[in-house]
Amino acid sequence: MKALAIFPEKKDIRIIQVPEPKLDSPDQVLIHPLEVGICGTDRGLARFEFGTPPPGLDYLVAGHETIGEVVEAGKNVEGFRKGDLVVPTVRRPCGEARCLPCRIEESDMCFTGRFTERGIKSAGGYMTELIAEHPAYLTRIPAGLRSVGVLLEPLSIIEKALKQLEEIQERLPWKCPPGTRGGKYGCRSALVLGAGPVGFLAAISLANMGMKTYLASRNDPEDPKIRVLERAGITYFCSRQRSPQEIAERIGNIDVVLEAAGSSELSFEYLPILGVNGIYIMTGVPGQGNTLSVNGDDIMRRIVVYNQVVLGVVNANLSAFRRGVEHLAAFCEKVPESMEAIITARVPLESYAGYLMQKQRGEIKSVLSL
Fold it and tell me: For the chain, is the Cβ count within 10 Å smaller at the N or the C terminus?
């Protein structure tokens, strides 16, 4: 069967033929990936900045965002059957007894760093025609969400981030008074940085929580994809036209800044405008080699004096995927046009070069179909 393979040592990417997986145990599921999303991580792999093949192989099958269809279930599998739509998680536990998170199905918080990740680190990914997986790493997707199900993996990162946001902000009286328009978070303001798929999903999620939500990026305000935000009730700022300070003046106290751009320069440029008792969430992983000069005294002073929190979030476990399914359904009901518009291109796997190697003009999320 065909698969898109990355050869890190040879610095080569191509479609190859690989053996079809078999059900090695009666508690596995065989899945046909239908679509696989492309993200910044995939493009970093394509630039050979990171990525580790499975033991014994010189290639890594790419892809970690997918929606697939069950084609066969082992005789001991419960809860999944042929024809079900599913989304697998990305990270697998390290297997070490001393790592409590991995032992309790929270490998996204692995202590040892010896985890594996499908399509990224030491485990084959989803840009292929068949994969074998254990049900413990699968989330079922309703048929009605087939067209947006491939967005569940990036949304799971936001689900994890916002759950931790709520838990951390229990440190103070943060919920709004009863009767506040927008509900318990209607008096709070959130700013998202970055107009990629994670940024869009973050903005829609924060708005769904009731917060007054804004998004800043370098995109021209007339860019068609910015209209997707406007239809979802999100206010847009062009960072080339307004400074962070000007944006802060327009918003007022900024309770949440969620970075989804993968730029260290942008992240630290906006850190000083975080408001009193605010939380700054970083989800992007910048490329290597960029050196910054920052005012460390001012940053430390503001964080301490204003009771601020800076939080990094990577990967997500099954509970975040399950919450994401509920929210995908809610978003599709509330802002259906915006959700459908996030996927800007669907192309066959054979067209990978034009989409994996570089971002397309007007792109939010590009998807490869198998």
Answer: N
Which residues make Cβ contacts (< 8 Å) with residue 96, sequence separation at least 6? 102, 112, 114
Q: 310: which 2 tokens?
A: 């800076």
Same domain, 107 and 224: no
Does some domain include residue 163? yes
Provide the pLDDT for residue 182: 87
The residue-averaged pLDDT of 92-100 equals 96
Strands 189-193 and 256-259: parallel
Angle between helices 318-334 and 197-208 (to 10 degrees): 80
CB 258 within 8 A of CB 136: no
H or E stretch at 118 = strand 116-118
- What backbone phi and psi angles, to 5 degrees, belong to 153? -65, -50
Residue 56 structural domain: 2-141+341-369
Radius of gyration for the alpha carbons in the chain, expressed in angstroms and rounded: 21
In a domain, 132, yes or no: yes
d(CA 148, CA 2): 24
Residue 320 lies in a domain: no
